[in-house]
Amino acid sequence: MEPPLPPDRIADLLARDRARLWHPYAGRVEPPEVLPVVAAEGVRLRLADGTRLVDGMSSWWAAVHGYNHPVLNAAVREQLDRMAHVMFGGLTHPPAVALAERLAELAPGALTEVFLADSGSVAVEVAIKTALQYWMDGGGGRRTRLLTVRGGYHGDTFGAMAVCDPVGGMHHLFRHVLPEHVFVSAPPPGYGAEPDPAYLAEIEAALERHGERIAAVILEPVVQGAGGMRFYAPGYLRGVRELCDRFGVLLIADEIATGFGRTGRLFGCDHAGIAPDIMCLGKALTGGYLTMSAVLTTRAVAERVDAGAGALMHGPTFMANPLAASVALASVDLLLATDWRRKVAGIEERLRTGLAPAAALPGVRDVRVLGAIGVVQLDRPVDVAAATRAAVAHGVWLRPFRDLVYTMPPFVTGADDVDAIAAAMLAAVRAG
Fold first, then answer.
1. pLDDT of 321-363, one tens digit each?
2. Can you tell me the mean pLDDT for 177-198?
3. 343 is catalytic
4. Domains and CATH numbers, the chain
5. Under a CB-based contact definition with an 8 Å cutoff, are residues 271 and 265 in contact?
6. Where do the annotations place pyridoxal 5'-phosphate binding (predicted)?
7. C-alpha dihedral over 154, 20, 48, 59, to 10 degrees?
8. Is 25 an annotated catalytic residue?
9. Is residue 54 within 8 Å of 44, Cβ to Cβ?
10. I need a labelling partner for 336 at 20 to 30 A (CA). Which of 134, 166, 306, 407 fits?
11. Does the annotation mark 232 as catalytic?
């Protein structure tokens, strides 16, 4: 292991960062504190001064196998010796073909057609385009709107922002320049709650009122992620599937955060036993190594898109990047080769136990756990800087936001480290 960097080099690195870099969801003139990471191994990040932190975030929910995994390292190295990149227009390559076959095998229902894109946000853009083109006839069509639920989050690009919560979401600043879609209330909370027929009646009424303009319903299955870390009953998802069938609109499942086991099932849709017409995958797809996403749809949808414009009108420069496709295939196969269900269930059990005391802390509104997701919701915005410092003092990296202190650890996180994450969350709640 390399020795820690001298204090003057750490100070220089941070000064150069501060002088040039704009971090996500952060101000530029007065940027927040950042920690310099120089290496990562297993579930730990190593800072420049030698401090090691348990990563409670899986690098924004992507590094499900942890860091520096020999299987994933080998996949990248072996592919690098063959070819780092080649355009996908008019060409193909073995990693892309094998990955598409694997995803089609695993996906629920008959999602057999695979489009490989750059990132989660781009996957949502592609899914929206697919749904809109599905309804186009010779370049036109009346179905130009989507129906979605409040409390959702689907990405940072403009098409994705337009289906995020327009009032309380992170992109409300742009609501006056985004396309106006149809929103209904957020699903009533509680994974284990009995579904309320009145909520499904609200969606039904919206489809009756706007049905001729609606191309698709888009939502995050069972867990609303960055919009608020809310869990809802699978019965609502089944009800939406039935309503989409009845009204003849497509269903888009944004599985970017929920896919590949995070909720305790391979896909969020599996909780409800349903299949969407279009599904978006990302984040854990490559195990956190490289950016890549996938959009899967049915043959029937693809045929209708082809019958209209003749092609799906999207083509990223780095579509199906061979390095990303190779590590994605290795990551998916590695997940399937392990007892990931047991691991996720073990994380869930320890988070339930470790976070239970949070319910008695002042200012705590709710404590909830599902799969490898643990959430403590406050009755006020979190003091992110103070909460982060408290977690780091406990040897854990967390990234609170809004009124939430939460964790989505790697699936390989051991029992003692899960306990450490829970203790750090309690400390962060007290501090923030």
1. 999 999 999 999 999 999 999 999 999 999 999 999 999 999 9
2. 95
3. no
4. 7-68+340-431 (3.90.1150.10), 72-337 (3.40.640.10)
5. yes
6. 120-121, 254, 316-317
7. 10
8. yes
9. yes
10. 407
11. no
